[in-house]
Amino acid sequence: MKLASLDLGLKRIGVAICVDGKVSCPLTAIIRKNRNQASRDVDKFLEEWGIEGLVVGVPKGGSSEEEMGRRIKHFISLLTFKGEIFYQDEYGTSYEAVELMVESQNNKKNRKDGKLDSISAKLILDRWLEFRN
After folding, report:
1. Which CATH superfamily is domain 3-132 in?
2. CA 97 to CA 122: how far, in whole Å?
3. Are strands 3-8 and 12-18 parallel, antiparallel or unpaired?
């Protein structure tokens, strides 16, 4: 099954794919101007890659868990994607992504270009794959 992962944010949507069920790869993040444009761009991405399963990061624990979960599920409801949707705890993936890109701590450009967001999406997908295998 071809899988994709999303790390949904208010400004950027990190994306990653896995086409062999084993190795995931971060791709160029989707810049989010508004939710309608972003949902169209995500749909286009999923269609272009022939994605069959979508893993979506959601925060577990913390004071904003319920609100963020609601927002994420609302965004996913805007998609026309007909494949399977899975939700995966994204706790700590942003911090892990920064550790993987040590230079990003001193280079704010990396925070704005979406590389960190897509590495977070890769980590979310890796967690899901590890849990399923």
Report:
1. YqgF/RNase H-like domain (3.30.420.140)
2. 9
3. antiparallel
Distances (CA, A) of 82 to 10, 58, 112: 24, 20, 30
Helix count (H) and strand count (E) of the chain? 5, 6
Instruction: With beta carbons less than 8 A apart as the criterion, state whether 30 and 16 touch.
Output: no
Tokens of 79: 């998609």
Crossing angle for the helix pair 93-100 and 115-132, to the nearest 10 degrees: 120
Highest-confidence range of 34-48, 65-79, 87-101, 102-116, by mean pLDDT?
Answer: 34-48
- Which distant-in-sequence residues (6+ apart) come within 8 Å of 18 by Cβ? 2, 3, 4, 5, 24, 25, 125, 129
Query: Sorting pLDDT into bands at 50, 70 and 90, what band is 97?
Result: low
Look at the alpha carbons of 60, 70, 24, 96 in this order and tell me if their dihedral is positive or negative: negative
Paired with 16 in beta bridges are 5, 26
The 3-state DSSP class for residue 14 equals strand
Tell me the domain boundaries of the chain. 3-132
